[in-house]
């Protein structure tokens, strides 16, 4: 699933605009251009496994009660660009959460591989033992 295929219900989102930091001069100082996007995870209507993966991927962006994910976009000068960036990040994260990880297939080291490893260790040890002081 690609980020373009993700549909996000508007009632699951809550946007607030804050004063941004960093470069941008008077525009940054006067206008609240940074976008803080709060997403209600339960209102997204996702499968419980996808919700768990989404919370895991979000990491520190998840609130303490694990109900919301917060995105803050402040790299652009305009509100609209920051709003689009926050929504794009959300869509990308949801698309990543839809990808189910492959289960690890257990493998074993063969007996011959173990023997080769032990032999190489013995040879290395013998070589190092010969580096000692010479006895007359």
TrEMBL record:
Disordered, as annotated region: 96-136
Limits of the Prokaryotic-type class I peptide chain release factors domain: 5-135
Top-rank EC class of the record's enzyme: hydrolase
Record's keyword terms, sorted: Hydrolase
EC number: 3.1.1.29
InterPro entries with a match to the protein in the record: Pep_chain_release_fac_I (IPR000352)
Record's keyword annotation contains Hydrolase: yes
Chain ranges passing through the membrane: none
GO molecular function list: peptidyl-tRNA hydrolase activity
Compositional bias per record (Basic residues), positions renumbered to this chain: 99-115, 123-136
Keyword Transferase: no
NCBIfam families the record matches: PRK09256.1
Protein name: Aminoacyl-tRNA hydrolase
């Amino acid at each position: 699933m690609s980020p373009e295929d993700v549909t996000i219900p508007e009632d699951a989102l809550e946007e607030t605009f804050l004063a941004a930091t960093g470069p941008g001069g008077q525009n940054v100082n006067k206008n609240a251009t940074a976008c803080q996007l709060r997403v209600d995870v339960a209102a997204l209507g996702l499968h419980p496994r996808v919700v768990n993966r989404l919370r895991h991927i979000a990491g520190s962006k998840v609130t303490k009660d694990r109900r919301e994910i917060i995105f803050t976009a402040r790299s652009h000068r305009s509100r609209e660009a920051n709003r689009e960036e926050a929504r794009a990040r959300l869509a990308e994260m949801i698309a990543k959460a839809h990808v189910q990880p492959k289960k690890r297939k257990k493998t074993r080291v063969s007996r011959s591989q173990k023997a080769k490893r032990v032999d190489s260790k013995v040879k290395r040890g013998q070589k190092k033992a010969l580096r000692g002081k010479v006895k007359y």
